[in-house]
C-alpha cells in the first residue's frame, strides 16, 4: 500500500510565497551612505584631541564581506615602539560585525579574533593580553561578516609610538 500526498496548485503557490517572504526577511535594510559618513566624521572628531591616542583605524565594510578581516585591511606602523593601554572597537548601525586585530611587536605578530559584536552597543573595549601590549611596532585591523553595509573604527590608546 502506497501513500502519496497530493499537493494542489494553491498549496504549492502558498509554499513558494512563504519561501520568498522568508528570503526577503534575510535581506539587510539599505543603509544611507550619508548617515555612515556622518557617523564616521563624528567618531573621528570625538577622539582626535585625546592625549593618549596612538592610532585611529577606520574603514567602510559591505554586508557579508569577509576578505577585509582576513587581510587586515587597515594598518598603522609606529615611528618608534609603542606601549598600548587600550583598544576600542565601534561600528555604525544596529547590525553586527566581527574582526581580526593584529599586533606586531619586535619580531612577533599576534592576532585576536573578534566574535560578532553589536554595533549599537559600542564602543567595545577589546581584551588584549597585557603581554601583547609592549613594544608594539604595528597595529592592523580588518572587519568582516557585517550584517549590513557599515563602517568601523578602532581606537588605540597608549604612549610612545612617535620619535622624540
Helix-strand category:
alpha+beta
Q: What kind of sheet is the major sheet? A: 7 strands, antiparallel
Distance N to C terminus: 89 Å
Overall 3D shape: globular
Gyration radius (Cα, Å) is 22 Å
Q: How many helix segments?
A: 3
Beta-strand share of residues: 35-45%
Number of DSSP E strands: 7
What's the rounded overall pLDDT mean? 81
String of helices and strands? HHEHEEEEEE
Low-confidence stretches: 1-25
Helix content: 10-25%
Describe the overall structure.
This protein is of the alpha+beta class. Strand 3 and strand 4 form a beta hairpin. It has helices spanning 9-26, 33-47, 67-71, and strands at residues 53-61, 74-91, 96-105, 108-118, 124-125, 136-144, 150-160. The longest helix is centred in the N-terminal third of the chain and has 18 residues, at 9-26. The relative contact order is 0.26. The protein is 23% helix and 43% strand. It is built from three helices and seven strands; from the N terminus they run ααβαββββββ. Strands 1, 2, 3, 4, 5, 6 and 7 form a seven-stranded antiparallel β-sheet that branches.
Amino acid at each position: 500500500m502506497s501513500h502519496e500526498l497530493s499537493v494542489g496548485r494553491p498549496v504549492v503557490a502558498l509554499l513558494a510565497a512563504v519561501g520568498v517572504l522568508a528570503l526577503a526577511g534575510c535581506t539587510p535594510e539599505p543603509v544611507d551612505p550619508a548617515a555612515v559618513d556622518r557617523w564616521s566624521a563624528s567618531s573621528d572628531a570625538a577622539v582626535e584631541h585625546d592625549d593618549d591616542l596612538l592610532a585611529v583605524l577606520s574603514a567602510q565594510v559591505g554586508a557579508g564581506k569577509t576578505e577585509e578581516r582576513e587581510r587586515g585591511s587597515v594598518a598603522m606602523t609606529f615611528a618608534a615602539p609603542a606601549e598600548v593601554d587600550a583598544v576600542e572597537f565601534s561600528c555604525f548601525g544596529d547590525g553586527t560585525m566581527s574582526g581580526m586585530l593584529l599586533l606586531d611587536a619586535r619580531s612577533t605578530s599576534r592576532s585576536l579574533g573578534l566574535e560578532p559584536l553589536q554595533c549599537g552597543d559600542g564602543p567595545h573595549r577589546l581584551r588584549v593580553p597585557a603581554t601583547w601590549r609592549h613594544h608594539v611596532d604595528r597595529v592592523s585591523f580588518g572587519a568582516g561578516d557585517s550584517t549590513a553595509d557599515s563602517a568601523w573604527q578602532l581606537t588605540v590608546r597608549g604612549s610612545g609610538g612617535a620619535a622624540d
